[in-house]
Write a structure and sequence with these properties.
This protein has 169 residues and is α+β, with helices and mostly antiparallel strands. Helix content is 37%, strand content 20%. It has a single domain (8-140), classed as Sufe protein. Chain: A, CATH 3.90.1010.10. The protein has a four-stranded mixed beta sheet with strand order 3-2-1-4. The chain binds FE2/S2 (inorganic) cluster.
Length: 169
């Protein structure tokens, strides 16, 4: 559980620490599901890939990776979230909220809350795609990159746009 007394300086230093060695950064060529969100307010985007496996008769997340054109906070949260997701079932991963995903950083400053929500949104999109609830928001292959999607006219059709303050779906 996060420490409510943590100062902004502690937060900034934890973000810096996470950025010195970000985990699970990059596309996953053999992913089972992918989710992408963008925030029109800040222009940032996060994409998350998930790979599942069977363990003890349960379907669990084997690996997760991400790409982000976003602020340092989004990258730090995504790095921690992709580590946190390993071994989780669909239901367990789906129960995680942005505050859970960013907990190792401590409480996010108000201006940074949407950064965590973007990571949660990308996770939810990927989980929904895996569950068959919605079409995948990006190809499973590397044929389409996050950078490429940002600069194509069709980009908006592929992205789930999360508005500031809107709970990620
Ligand atoms: Fe937009 Fe962090 S400022 S994701």
């Amino acid at each position: 559980m996060s420490d409510p007394t943590m100062s902004e300086t502690d937060f900034e230093s934890r973000v810096r620490d996470a950025l010195t060695n970000p985990q699970n950064l990059g596309e996953m060529s053999d992913a089972d599901a992918v989710g992408t969100v963008g925030n029109p307010e800040c222009g940032d985007m996060v994409r998350m890939w998930l790979k599942f496996t069977e363990k003890d008769g349960r379907k669990v997340i084997d690996r997760a990776s991400f790409q982000s054109f976003g602020c340092q906070t989004a990258i730090a949260v995504a790095s921690m979230a992709t580590e946190m997701l390993k071994g989780k079932t669909l239901a367990e991963a789906g129960a995680l909220q942005s505050a859970d995903l960013s907990a190792p950083l401590g409480p996010l400053p108000p201006m940074k809350i949407h950064c965590g929500e973007m990571v949660e949104g990308a996770l939810r999109q990927a989980l929904a795609a895996e569950a068959g609830a919605v079409p995948a928001t990006a190809p499973k292959s590397n044929a389409s990159t996050l950078l490429g999607d940002m600069h194509t006219p069709a980009a908006t059709g592929k992205l789930r746009v999360v508005k500031l303050g809107e709970g990620a779906v």
